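Example for tutorial group B:
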């Protein structure tokens, strides 16, 4: 189901103008999540029919490059393949934001040429610390499989980490970059404490820009394109 729409976004896909669709299901409980109300109380947000979504897309198809489907975890939606197929039939590009927990579904969508761009959130180092960032017991084999699928897919992609004081250190971030095996693009995102799912994080001061840039510098030798977003 679709519970939220941004009709026009310049921020969700670098260099593209897209409509953003929000899905409410998620199997993670990341304490720094900003969309937690959508996940905890989806009925607060009216369900959007595909008919209304497609009408909006047709109306703006000369202006929009494509659609970004995010969440939540959109690969948990049983209709995700159908939605992507309809987007592609309209001649639009399709981007998926994922937490990497559903590799088999991701692989199937890629094999069917339904996805043009994948952004995967890598929540932490690929070890026992991962659960601290996801808030649940995480199957790291699935996370690693998703990384391998994306890297071997041939489609454009990025891996990204939101850097949260108390959850991530510079050493953690560099370890992620190394574990990704020289990815095409790695993105560090500045943490925004306002409205975090965990009330304890709402008063946490984000890392200074200089520290984030130092982290990026430490990662840069292990990745292709190093990107930093959201500096204050």
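The residue assignment follows.
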């Amino acid at each position: 189901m679709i519970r939220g729409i941004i009709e026009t976004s310049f921020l969700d896909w670098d260099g593209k103008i897209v409509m953003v669709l929000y899905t409410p299901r998620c199997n993670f409980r990341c304490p720094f999540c900003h969309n937690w109300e959508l996940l905890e109380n989806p009925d607060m947000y009216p369900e959007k029919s595909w008919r209304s979504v497609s009408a909006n897309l047709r109306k703006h198809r000369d202006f929009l490059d494509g659609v970004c489907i995010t969440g939540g975890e959109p690969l948990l939606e049983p209709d995700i393949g159908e939605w992507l197929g309809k987007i592609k039939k309209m001649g639009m590009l399709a981007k998926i934001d994922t937490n990497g927990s559903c590799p088999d579904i991701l692989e199937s969508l890629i094999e069917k040429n339904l996805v043009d761009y994948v952004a995967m959130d890598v929540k932490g180092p690929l070890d026992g610390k991962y659960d601290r960032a996801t808030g649940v017991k995480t199957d790291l084999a699935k996370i690693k499989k998703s990384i391998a699928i994306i890297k071997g897919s041939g489609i454009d992609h990025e891996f990204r980490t939101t850097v949260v004081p108390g959850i991530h250190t510079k050493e953690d971030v560099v370890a992620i970059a190394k574990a990704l095996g020289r990815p095409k693009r790695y993105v560090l995102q500045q943490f925004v404490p306002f409205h975090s799912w965990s009330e304890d994080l709402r008063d946490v001061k984000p890392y200074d820009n200089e520290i984030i840039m130092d982290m990026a510098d430490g990662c840069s030798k292990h990745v292709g394109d190093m990107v930093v977003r959201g500096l204050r």
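The CA atoms of residues 31 and 194 lie 12 Å apart. Compare this with the pattern of hydrophobic and polar residues in the output above.
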